[in-house]
Amino acid sequence: MATYFALSLFTLAIFFDLRAYRIPNMLCATFLTLGIVLNGIENGIAGALWATAAACLMLILLFPLYSLKMLGAGDVKLMMAVGAIIGITLSLWSLAWGIAIGGLLTVLFAAYKAGWSSVKKTVYRYFMCFCMRRYVKPDADEFGAIRVPYAPALALGFLITCYHEPALHQPFLSLLTQVGIH
After folding, report:
1. Predicted local distance difference test score (pLDDT) of residue 178
2. Would you tell me which of 20, 49, 79, 95 could form a disulfide with 58, CB atoms 3.0–4.6 Å apart?
């Protein structure tokens, strides 16, 4: 059941992120609440508390990336809702895969949009930020200034996690069997 809710959330988030570079607060809040309530129904107060802990962990892990303007607030709230739906361990794996895929996709997307010289310029700027221990705003011509929708990468991270976790992909297989595809 959680797999379907997470997949629905990611589908809607991708739609909004690709369309407007924005993931609506109401979407994230609805699924965050849904995750906590469903886990509470399935596992009692402990389930609701674990779902809340997963959402809080996502906030704690992703807030620094938001503060550094490396991730949008909608992406942080999206992963909080995913954490509430699928729990701590699976949301951590989804996040890890999503960040790995997102980093690669971001560089490729930015290189396509702004060119490889822009990529080098941004890497140098990040190095300087690290050395000076303060944020330096990107120039308009470097890829650090290009907005990249991140929900698709986070969704791919979730799908990879589903592939590696039988409990998550079993509902898909049974659905495919019911409709005669598998």
Report:
1. 76
2. 79
Residue 17 near residue 69, CB atoms below 8 Å: no
Q: Cα separation of 113 and 139, whole Å?
A: 15
Q: Which tokens sit at 136?
A: 């330096």
Structure tokens at 110: 């930015």
Give the number of domains in the chain: 1
The predicted-structure confidence for 94-130, as pLDDT tens digits, reads as follows: 999 999 999 888 888 877 877 778 778 888 888 888 8
Give the Cα separation of 111 and 19 in Å (integer). Answer: 21
Structural domain span for residue 50: 2-178
Angle of helix 151-164 versus helix 2-20 axis, rounded to 10: 160
Longest pairwise C-alpha distance within the chain:
60
How far is the C-alpha of 46 from the C-alpha of 64, rounded, in Å?
Answer: 28
